[in-house]
Each structure stands twice: as C-alpha cells, then as structure tokens.
C-alpha cells in the first residue's frame, strides 16, 4: 500500500496580492540659506574634510606596513636574512618605501583639495537692500488739490514737453524785431508789473521753470531759506539770455543745486533728488556754473528788478545776504 507522502511545505502565497511596502517618497525641500543653516553646512564640510584627512593618514600607514611585509616576503623567498648587514642598502630600501608612501599620500591629499576647491567654499552673501525712497506725496494724501493719484503722470507729461516747448537758443538771429537786451528789459519789466501776464493773456500751459521748481523743492524737503534762494536764482536766470539753451526742468534743478551749495548743505545732491528730478550731479554742473556767474553779477547794471525784489524783508533779504556767498 502506497504511503501518502506529506510535506511541511507551505503553499506559495499570491505574490501579486501581497502588500508591498514602498519607501516613502523623498520630497526635496529648498530652504533659503540663513546664517544658522549656512553655518551648519560649513561645519559638516569641515568635519568631512577632517575625516578624509584621517582616512588618508590611515591608508598611508597601511601602505607602509604592506611595503615592510613585501620586503620580508622577498627576503624569505631569496633566502636572505631579515637582518641585513649592509646599512647603505637597507637605508636605500627604506627610503624608497617611505617615498612611495609619501607620494601616494600627497596624491590623495591633492585630489581631496582639488575636489574641495572645485566645490568652492560656502559663501553666504548678505546683500543690503537699498533703503526705499521716501514718499514725498504722503503728506498730501487728504489734499484733493494736490492730486496725488495723478502727480507722477502730470510731471511725466511735463518732462515730455520740456524740450518741445523750449524757445530755440538762437532765435535772436532769426528775427530783427528785438535783440537780447530788449528781451531782458521786457522780462525785467514783467517781473515788476506781474499783473501784465493776466492782461496780455499769456498762454502758460507749457511747463515753465516754476512748475518744476515747486515739485523739486518738495523733493528736497526745503526750508524757507533754501526756497527763497532757489527762486531768487531762478528769476535771475529769466533775465539772462544765455540760459535759454537749458530746458526749464534743468534750470530749476540747477537752481536748487546751486542754492544748496551756496548754503553749504550736505550732501549737495542726493538719491531722492536724482530720482525725482531725473538729473545727476554731473548733468547739473554746466547750468550750475552759469547760474553762479549770473548770481555773482546780480545787482550790477541797469536791470536790477530781481535783485531789488529779493532784497526786501518779504523775501527774507536773500539778495543781500547771498551777495558775498
């Protein structure tokens, strides 16, 4: 009778139905490099470098022992004695073994330093953000006449028409009705009897130096003294024919710049003025020198309306106070 063989083997389970444990997906997180985080990375790199140097030292020692074992093995094979009576030969062999160990150690150390140099040191650059420019229109937020919402657009339009509305600097040579001296007399007269502007109904829609002066003085956060000096220098330029070659906005900016220099204000020109006036200090030099020459000769000759106007107490007597500046 056949004996039924029994087996203790377990039936294979359904492999496909078994729950497979997958390793959790690693999500790379990009962290900004802060000082603390950067210091941690630098410490890890330093520790890694020390471990590598220890490993190189250990390997060099092992190579030294291997070299000694090779010498002993060679001596046994050749039937030579382990103790060599020739000191010169023994010194040469030891020197060769030491040189091979030092060379291998130097190569590995150089490779380590090259690898470290290729990676570069961890540099954490903390760039100092430039301080934002002050909002010069904030104080007029509740003043509807200041039209704060449109002031930048208005002055952008003024700058666009700044050059287009300028009188040609050589227009005197294109006509024979008046000359530059007659023009100076007319402007000097208009300054004394300013009501004539309304009588003659001049078209003042084009940007004049006074339009830019108000804005630029606000940017400069001027006091009463700087304001009076700037307007005094600006009106002196109106009489002088030579200043027609400069745009109105440039004359206004240069008048403020010259006024700050005469009053010894520091700095003479700052980033806020440069941003809103759109002129650098170098761009103001030529016009500023012309204004300084006009100021030096103010009060001389027959056309002294501007000088006499700003010599009274109403205008803080800036004409006489600035005479020797």
SSE diagram, text form:
Elements: H1 35-78, H2 87-119, H3 151-164, H4 180-192, H5 196-200, H6 209-219, H7 224-239, H8 248-262, H9 271-277, H10 285-296, H11 305-309, H12 318-321
Helix pairs in contact: 1-2, 6-7, 6-8, 7-8, 7-10, 8-10
Q: What's the quick description here?
A:
It is built from twelve helices and no strands. By secondary structure, the protein is mainly alpha-helical.
Essential attributes:
12 helices, 55% helix, elongated
The count of helical stretches stands at: 12
The mean pLDDT is: 74
Major sheet characteristics: none
CA gyration radius, whole angstroms? 44 Å
The assigned structural class equals mainly alpha
Structure explained in plain terms:
The protein has helices spanning 35-78, 87-119, 151-164, 180-192, 196-200, 209-219, 224-239, 248-262, 271-277, 285-296, 305-309, 318-321. The chain is elongated. It contains twelve helices and no strands. It is mainly alpha-helical. Mean pLDDT is 74; it is low at 77-84 and 112-128.
């Amino acid at each position: 009778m056949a004996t039924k063989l029994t087996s203790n083997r377990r039936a294979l389970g359904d492999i496909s139905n078994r729950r497979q444990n997958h390793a959790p997906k690693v999500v790379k997180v990009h962290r900004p490099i802060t000082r603390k985080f950067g210091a941690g990375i630098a410490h890890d790199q330093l520790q890694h470098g020390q471990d590598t140097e220890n490993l190189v030292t250990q390997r060099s020692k092992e190579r030294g022992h291997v070299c000694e074992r090779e010498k002993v093995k060679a001596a046994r094979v050749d039937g030579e004695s382990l103790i060599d009576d020739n000191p010169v030969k023994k010194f040469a062999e030891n020197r060769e073994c030491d040189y091979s160990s030092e060379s291998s150690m130097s190569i590995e150390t150089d490779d380590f330093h090259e690898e470290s140099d290729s990676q570069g040191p961890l540099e954490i650059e903390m760039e100092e953000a430039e301080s934002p420019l002050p909002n010069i229109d904030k104080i007029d937020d509740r003043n509807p006449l200041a039209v704060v919402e449109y002031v930048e657009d208005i002055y952008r339009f003024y700058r666009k028409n700044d050059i287009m509305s300028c009188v040609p600097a050589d227009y005197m040579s294109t006509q024979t009705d008046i000359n530059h001296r007659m023009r100076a007399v007319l402007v000097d007269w208009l300054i004394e009897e300013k009501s004539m502007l309304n009588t003659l109904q001049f078209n003042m829609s084009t940007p004049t130096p006074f339009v830019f002066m108000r804005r630029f003085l606000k940017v400069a956060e001027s006091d009463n003294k700087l304001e009076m000096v700037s307007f005094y220098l600006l009106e002196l330029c109106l009489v002088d024919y030579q200043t027609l070659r400069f745009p109105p906005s440039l004359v206004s900016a240069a008048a403020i710049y010259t006024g700050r220099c005469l009053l010894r204000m520091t700095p003479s020109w700052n980033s806020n003025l440069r941003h809103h006036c759109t002129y650098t200090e170098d761009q103001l030099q030529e016009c500023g020198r012309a204004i300084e020459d006009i100021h030096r000769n103010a009060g001389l000759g027959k056309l002294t309306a501007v000088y006499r106007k700003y010599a009274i107490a109403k205008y803080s007597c800036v004409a006489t106070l600035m005479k020797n500046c």
